[in-house]
Amino acid sequence: MGKQTKQKGSHFGGEWTIQKLHIIEEYAKTYLTALKNQKVKKIYVDGFAGSGKTELKSSSKDGEQQSITVDGSALLSLKYDFDEYYFLEVDEGRIASLKENVKTSYPEKVGKVHFITGDCNKKLSDVLSEITLYHRCLMFLDPYALELKWETLEKISKCGVVDLWYLFPLSVVRLMAKDKDIPDGNKDKVTSILGTDEWLNELFFESPQLTLFGDTQYERVEYDKILEYIKKRFATIFPFVSPNSKILKNEAKNSPMFMLCFMMTNQSGKAQGLASKIVKGIISSTERL
After folding, report:
1. Alpha-carbon span 205 to 202, nearest angstrom
2. Of 58, 88, 183, 255, which one's alpha carbon is 20 to 30 angstroms from that of 39?
3. Which residues pair with 246 in a beta bridge?
4. Quick one: DSSP state of residue 179?
5. pLDDT of 212
6. What pLDDT score was predicted for residue 168?
7. Is the dihedral angle over the CA atoms 154, 155, 161, 166 positive or is it negative?
8. Are 220 and 176 in contact (CB under 8 A)?
């Protein structure tokens, strides 16, 4: 896991944060091992890099709140020997903190890091234009809320050398009212995340009961079916989407917060098969954390 310090981080997290970081770090380690004999440039991209630090809250045995600060995904990636690193962050304060954290913890890596300030949906296009068939790219997208647009995923899917971990925000489900009576603003937001408005037909069905006025009522499908639909959407543009994903929950409320999904742009069946086994093993290992 990352270094523990007393420095304040840019995010607050919990047990789910530890699971997320474990999965990303373990995959990065295995990814580089698999590529060690290949003559390709290895690139790491963090689309919402933050300040590099995350503050974790926990309760001690006597019930008091405690906090520790751990390295986030961007700093963790610097433990491993990629040839180049791209850290994207919209907030200027966070990117400034990230630069300082990199200089302090990994001064020897500073020359390999590209710090990019701006909207990931726009700036990622520039990064993708630098990646060729002679590169291999591991990318992590961890949006703060519902910022990541479907069009951005489409651009990534066309770059044939990317392995992508996407921390999908399940807050999008809360925008889908269970009776299909959804404000237009919420509909538009869900459509921008899923890339289609067909979810309105796929995720709702007519209720056998009518309203008092004889109108048709609608019900939303079960939660698991919504998660299946989201992964099916990814599979419409990515050659491989792992059937294994990790649901990260708010431990206090035991409510789903995110679905950490893995997908590849590589068309090779052999590469997909290897990645599938690795992902399954790493996700299973989080149960022991």
Report:
1. 8
2. 88
3. 260
4. T
5. 56
6. 97
7. negative
8. yes
CA distances from 235 to 45, 74, 164, 242, 262 (A): 21, 27, 13, 9, 11
Q: How many CA atoms lie within 13 A of 276 on its CB side?
A: 12
Question: What length is written for the chain?
Answer: 289
Q: Is the pTM of this model over 0.70?
A: yes
Beta carbons within 10 angstroms of residue 138's beta carbon: 23
The residues, ordered by sequence, that sit 6+ positions from 4 with a Cβ below 8 Å of its Cβ are 68, 69, 70
The candidate with the shortest Cα–Cα distance to 231, out of 243, 246, 248, 247, is: 243
Identify the CA nearest to 24 among candidates 164, 155, 137, 135.
Answer: 164
Count the Cβ atoms, other than its own, within 10 Å of residue 123: 17
Determine the Cα–Cα distance for residues 109 and 103; give it in Å rounded to an integer. Answer: 8
**Per-block average pLDDT, block size 10, for the chain (289 residues)?**
40 83 97 94 96 80 77 97 97 96 97 97 95 96 92 97 97 91 95 96 86 74 96 98 95 89 96 95 89
DSSP string covering 201-254, please?
Answer: HHSEEEEEEE-TTS-EEEEEPPHHHHHHHHHHHHHTT-SEE-S--EEEEETTTT
Phi, psi at residue 59, to the nearest 5°? -105, 135
Residue 229 in contact with residue 189, Cβ under 8 Å?
Answer: no
d(CA 127, CA 115): 11
Q: Report residue 67 CA to chain centroid gap.
A: 24
Element (H, E) at 257: strand 255-264
The answer to whether the CB of 72 falls within 8 A of the CB of 31 is no
Q: What angle do CA 263, 122, 266 make, to 5 degrees?
A: 25
